[in-house]
Amino acid sequence: MNSEDVKNLCTNIVGLNKNFYSSSNEHQRNTSPPRCQIFRRDSQYLVFEGDQIKIPHGHMGLRAEIHFGVIIEIECSECPKEKAMDFVAGYVAVLNTRLRNSNYEAKGKAIAETHDFPSCIAMSPIIHKKFVEHPHACTIWASANGAEFQRAPLTDMVKTIPEVIEHVSRVITLTRGDLLLCGTSTDGHGVQAGDVIEMGIENTIRCVFPVVKFSEVQAAEPTSSNFIENKAQAGTMLDRDAQEGEEKEEKID
Length: 253
What we know:
There is one protein chain. A hairpin with a 2-residue loop joins strand 9 and strand 10 (147-153). Helices cover 23% and strands 32% of the residues. Strands 1, 2, 3, 5, 6, 7, 8, 11 and 12 form a 9-stranded mixed β-sheet that branches. It has a 5-stranded mixed β-sheet with strand order 4-14-13-9-10. It is an alpha+beta fold.
C-alpha cells in the first residue's frame, strides 16, 4: 500500500490522545498512567509530502504535534491485541495540527473532535511493516526551521501499538487505508506562516512541510475580476488589430 492508496481509501483518521508518559515524571509510569482519549480528524483534509500546511483565514498560527501513525491493511473491528499486528500495512510519521485556541471535545460521545480545516493532517510516505521489525524501538521527532521541538521514543507510550488498535477498534470499525495515530508526547508547538516543519521516524524516514497562510495561496490564483479585466483588454487589442488590417487592405486597393 502507498500514499495514493491511502488518499483514495482512507475514511477514518482516528487517534489516541494522552498516550505518552511524561518523560520527567517516572512516578506517573508506575502509579497513575494518563487516561487516553480517542479523537477523530477529517480524512478529506489529509495531505502528503510535497503539499503545504495552510493556516486558515483569520488565524495567525497553529499548534503542531507529531504522531506515530499506523496504516490499516484490512477491516478491523473489536480486534484483540494478540492479533492486532495482522491488520497493519505499514507505518508513517504524521503531523497533526490544530487551531491555537481549539481543543478536543467529546461532548458526551466516545470520540472527541476538534475544528478541522484543509491540510490539518500531513503524512509521510509509508514504510511497509516488514521493514520495521521492532516498531516500539522507534523514535518520532519534529523540528521547525531547523530547531527540534519534539522527540519521543515509543517506549514512552502508555498503550502499545497492538493495545491502541484493540482500544480504538472497540469503538469504531477501521477499514483498509485508514490512519491510526498512536499519540503524541506534547500538547503541540506553535507554528506560523513561513515556518518549515521537518518530521520523521528516526533512522527510517523524514519529510518536509512548509507552513503558509491560506490567503497567500489564494492570492496566487487569478480572480474572476482580473480575468474579466484581462479578457476585456485582450478583446480591445483584437479589435484594434482587425481595424488596422482593414485599413491596410483599403490602401492596397
